[in-house]
Amino acid sequence: MKIVSIVGARPQFIKSAPLSREIRKKYEEILIHTGQHYDYEMSKIFFDELDIPEPDYNLGVGSGTHGYQTGEMLRKLEEVLIKENPDIALVYGDTNSTLSGALASVKLHIKLGHIEAGLRSYDKNMPEEINRVLTDHISDLLFCPTITSVENLKKEGIKNGVYLVGDVMYDSLIYNIKIAEKKSEILEKLGINKKEYLLLTIHRAENTDAIENLIKILKALSKIYEKVIFPVHPRTKNVIEKNKIKIGEDIVLIDPLSYLDFIKLEKYAKKILTDSGGIQKEAYILRVPCITLRDRTEWMETVEDGWNILVGRDESKIINAVKNFNPKEKRRNVYGDGKAAIKIAEIIGDME
Question: 177-324 sits in which CATH class?
Answer without folding.
Answer: alpha beta
